[in-house]
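Researcher: Let's do a round of design. I'm pasting the structure tokens now; please hold your answer until I've finished.
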């Protein structure tokens, strides 16, 4: 009886460790996916109003809104940060952190919109996506 118990304990512990690890990975990836979906919705709202999409030398995305403001998305310290430069101003003002746990983001602006490659990663999971958002149509 004691030897059977000695054999079952490692098996039970191994199975529970595997289940816990799988559950942590699933929850972590779901958190990343939810954050990315929120980010995509926010960015889509901005980019659909935007025009004149361009990149800075550091790879940050710049574009203009009809009101004359310039929007900047930059990747810094595993975050995507949105800043606004009002018409006639020389500096960007304010910062809004749109997304965290970002290990990679690539902006590929075109004349009609922006393709975004996004990579997220936290302690237990990772999530990658590519999407395209069409900008405002020139009239």
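Researcher: That's everything. Go ahead.
Model: Designed sequence:
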């Amino acid at each position: 009886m004691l030897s059977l118990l000695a054999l079952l304990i490692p098996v039970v512990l191994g199975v529970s460790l595997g289940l816990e690890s799988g559950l942590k990975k699933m929850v972590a990836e779901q958190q990343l996916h939810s954050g990315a979906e929120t980010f995509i919705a926010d960015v889509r709202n901005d980019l659909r109003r935007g025009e004149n999409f361009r990149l800075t030398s550091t790879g940050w995305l710049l574009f203009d809104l009809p009101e004359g403001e310039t929007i900047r998305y930059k990747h810094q310290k595993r975050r995507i940060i949105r800043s606004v430069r009002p018409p006639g101003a020389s500096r960007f003002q304010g910062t809004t952190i749109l997304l965290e746990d970002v290990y990679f983001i690539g902006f590929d602006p075109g004349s009609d919109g922006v393709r975004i490659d996004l990579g997220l990663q936290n302690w237990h999971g990772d999530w990658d996506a590519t999407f395209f958002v069409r900008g405002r149509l020139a009239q």
